[in-house]
Fold this protein.
Amino acid sequence: MPDCTLTTPLKSAKVLVLGDVTRKTDTWKQMSTQFSYYEYNLTSREEFIHKLQTTFSDVNAIWITWEGFSPIGGLDDEIVAHLPSSLKMIVSCAVGYDHLNGAALAERGITLCNAPGLAAAPVADHVLLQTLSLFRYTPIFEHILRRHGSTNTTRTAISTSGWDSETGRPLQHLCNQRLPDYDAARDHAPRFSLGAYVGGREVRQPRGHSVGIVGFGAIGREIGARLASIGMKVHYYKRSPLTSEETAALGYEATYHSSLDSALQVSELLVLACPLTSDTLHMLNSRTFALLPDGAKLINIGRGKLIDTSALLDALRAGKVTGAALDVFESEPNVEPELLQRWDVLLTPHIASSTIETLQGAEQICVDNMVNGFYGDGLSVTRVN
């Protein structure tokens, strides 16, 4: 990427593009023909602040791509204070904006825009995939199959009645006789297994089980549609119930809960699909985990800090939670070491919405916001502050 080279078309609004943008698209053609623009990769806070005072001192908009301001520790008050007076708009490819200091930007008269409306379908697809994986234990079957290379051996190897709660792994019949605490009666596996048990845990269909969805906006409702389609009973918790019109538009039955505690008590599967706020920070903790049905399963596609990871690990070790699928993490981008070791935790690197359709659609929304803001009626399309 060129560093700090100004490209100038006929019109004069100047955009600072932070990060990589998809090329050879109509969106980029529109961007490059309607705006003057700099392209820049963030390296350090000191260098960026210096360039805001020099090279970028006259930019009118900042387009932040998927990496955002993370390379320099975020868009905190120090960075906001050094933004040039010419800056009128920051547009982001992401849906979430809790990390973009919207209130401080508003005080400076800077419009902040996100890129909503694209993530619901792919995120719901991801939740459906992880739901089936948790109930059917497919990642464990795959892991053992790759080791043994035999379907029969794989099913038999993990059909023991033993589960190591400390490591989150089933005891394996072919090797557990070497364990000091091996018990033939407890850990015995049949000569042939259908694959209906994994370490003494039943492999079940999601059909007929209850799912509680925390957060029932566009993403939560799409998740509900996917899980209702495979026969799950949908419950949801949000600050207020859907209107009668919204309920009718769902196309499936969903039971409202006015409190988180109430929703947790019926959630054999719990899906977190809400933003991070001061109220939702560590909403799953030692007290609230205890409210879940024994053996519950958990999926988090919201924000990592919705969950107290230490409390989750305690719940997994105790068998209160028998499986978790996490796409976001409390210490993101880093993942807590014990989560990496456990087979009862399915891990994905914050990719629930990651498709080419999402990527290019978000870029188009960013350009639309800038075009409308500078060359249209002056109003952004998706302002969030």
